[in-house]
Amino acid sequence: MRYLLDKSVIRHCVRGLLGDLRQGDVRFSLRLLLTLSPDELFISLEAVHILEHIVAVPQRRAILRRTSPLFPTRYTRRWARRLREANFAREDAYLLSLATFGTDRLKEGRILGVDVFVTCDLSLQAHYQSVQSAMQKRLQHMTAQLPPPYDRVIMPQVQTPREVLA
Amino acid sequence: MSTVTIELDPQLYQDFAARCEQVGLESDTVLRRLVEKFTAGEYLLDEMELAPGITVGQYLQLSDEDEAMLWDEWYAQAHQAVRHITGEASPDAIPAG
Q1: Tens digit of each residue's pLDDT (9 = 90 or more) over A12-33
Q2: Which residue of chain B is at minimal alpha-carbon distance from A113?
Q3: To the nearest whole angstrom, how far is the Cα of A121 from the nearest Cα of chain B?
Q4: Per-residue pLDDT, A3
Q5: What are the domain boundaries of chain A?
Q6: Interface touch B41/A154, C-beta < 8 Å
Q7: Residue B23 C-alpha, separation from nearest chain A C-alpha, in angstroms
């Protein structure tokens, strides 16, 4: 399984690594980071940039070591626009699209997309589930015209860290 | 070797000595290791900078809502920095599912 962690999960991991484990979301996010295989965990380039250039404490390295960047591909922005038409916020649409059309390398990427988009944002999860069926049809319509491997992408599940660990 | 002298109030000294005994280490060994960890950045103080303009202590005091807003700001900055980077999947890349 491959998982894309959104920034709510990453910020909870940072808080947990700083020693504040009072919130359930923090505990589950950190447990997810520390128990799943690093081969399975991906974060956006934006999250990588935050951890490399903005957050300065050494705890950031624990997250960078256990995750890999997921690069957008040539169809990520197109699918993000479709998702925005379904009333997702700009960032959410982009990250959900990255979960479908992201790859692990700048060139000759070995994977395409992830199985699960992990977020602590319950309203995003609820909205996704409400439009998933309709968006699935739009994705099929779009990918029917794309070259391999982009014609075989799927929409990810959207789960909370607690659901992933269950 | 250089020497550092620190003054502790009596109660703190007693608690420190008791803790050292509990873990079975001499007090100077404990202090040396703490200094090593602090110097290596592994041991954080509230006054240390977590990110530009905010210390660890200030960050840990943020409400969940304020912390989320801060990360929104950081995400917007990060997006500007990386938005032109695009990868390319190999034709035989393994799709999810």
Answers
A1: 999 999 989 999 999 999 999 9
A2: B96
A3: 11
A4: 98
A5: 3-165
A6: no
A7: 21
Asked if B60 contacts A15 with a C-beta cutoff of 8 angstroms, the reply is yes
Report the C-alpha gap between A92 and A113 in whole angstroms.
16
- ipTM of the complex, rounded to two decimals: 0.93
Tell me what the mean pLDDT of segment A66-77 comes to.
97
Q: Using one digit for the tens of pLDDT, what is the confidence trace for B39-59?
A: 887 778 889 999 999 999 999
Partner-chain residue, chosen from A23, A72, A104, that has the shortest CB–CB distance to B86: A72
Q: How far apart are CA A73 and CA A42, in angstroms?
A: 15
**Partner residue opposite B93 with nearest CB, options A91, A111, A154:** A111
**Smallest Cβ distance to B85: which of A2, A50, A71?**
A71
**Helix or strand (DSSP H, E) at A126:** helix A122-143
Closest CA to A47 of B71, B62, B55: B71
Confidence class for position B97, pLDDT limits 50, 70, 90: confident
Please, which residues 25-64 of chain B have a Cβ atom closer than 8 Å to chain A?
Answer: 40-42, 44, 48-52, 56, 59-60, 64
Torsion sign over Cα A133, A138, A139, A144: positive
- From 2.60.40, 3.30.460, 3.40.50, 1.10.3470, which CATH number describes the A3-165 domain? 3.40.50
What confidence score (pLDDT) does residue A10 get?
A: 97
Instruction: Please check the confidence at residue A52 and state whether its pLDDT lies above 90.
Output: yes
pTM, two decimals, is 0.89
